[in-house]
Design brief:
Layout: H1 2-29, E1 49-50, H2 62-68, H3 82-93, E2 113-119, E3 122-127, E4 132-138, E5 156-163, H4 175-200, E6 203-207, H5 212-219, E7 226-235
Length: 236
């Protein structure tokens, strides 16, 4: 009888310990992700920025990220790391599989949205195929990227501009539907950036306003073909 009781006690203890060990990894997953290699960039020269390959294994679990997603309007005046800049652009409009397919959906896969990165030293156009930022206009033009004071000191303002010539193909899109479709595409991009920022502990806010005409003039874009859609500020 004593042996039976002893064996039963040992069995219960073994099951309890085993359950505790299995539960431990779940607790570890709930810890906040701490990003690595986030040294601020030095952008002393106005040249093409070759972006890094994204770290596909980093970040929090999706539902944890969604819980933390929010808008901020106060940003530190320091540059983003190359890691963060690289992954933000890839999330916004990067190629994630064959046939030029992106991280964001687009009606009929036309991808009319051009993504501009407004940094402290100039404005760059994101090239998804090369995963690089191509210099367009040198100088600090951040004030044109928004109407609020914080856009002038935040390290990154993304500007999403629609190229309506993408809608002039075989399946031509009527003019009254073009902004509607382009806005859907840009909305997917900004939400992707929001989720990435929540995952990496960055701040972000989407904005409907900018100095649109002055910005298009500075970029040399024809107002009959291109239209500002939305902007998004990102930083620490």
């Amino acid at each position: 009888m004593k042996k039976l009781v002893l064996l039963s006690t040992l069995s219960i203890m073994f099951i309890f310990v085993a359950c505790q060990q299995k539960a431990q990894p779940v607790e570890e997953k709930q810890k906040d992700y701490v990003p690595q290699n986030t040294t601020p960039m030095e952008i002393n020269s106005f040249e093409t920025i070759q972006l890094q390959t994204p770290d596909y294994e980093s970040g929090d679990a999706l539902l944890a990220v969604a819980k933390k997603r929010k808008s901020d309007r106060e940003f530190e005046n320091r540059n983003l790391s190359l890691k963060h800049l690289s992954e933000i652009l890839w999330m916004a409009n990067g190629i994630n599989r064959g046939d030029d397919k992106r991280t964001v959906p687009s009606a009929m896969a036309l991808y009319p949205i051009q993504t501009y990165a407004v940094l402290a030293n100039g404005i760059y156009l994101y090239d998804p195929a090369a995963h690089s930022l191509v210099p367009v206009k040198e100088g600090d033009h951040r004030e044109l990227a928004g109407l609020q004071p914080f856009v002038q000191t935040a390290p990154l303002n993304l500007v999403f501009i629609a190229d309506y010539s993408r809608y002039d193909g075989d399946r031509k899109i009527p003019e009254n539907k073009r902004l509607y479709l382009a806005a859907l595409d840009a909305g997917h991009s900004t939400q992707n950036v929001y989720m990435y920022c929540a995952s990496e502990g960055l701040k972000a806010v989407v904005r409907a306003g900018a100095q649109e005409e002055a910005l298009l003039d500075l970029l040399g874009l024809d107002k009959n073909q291109y239209q500002f859609v939305v902007a998004q500020t990102v930083g620490y």
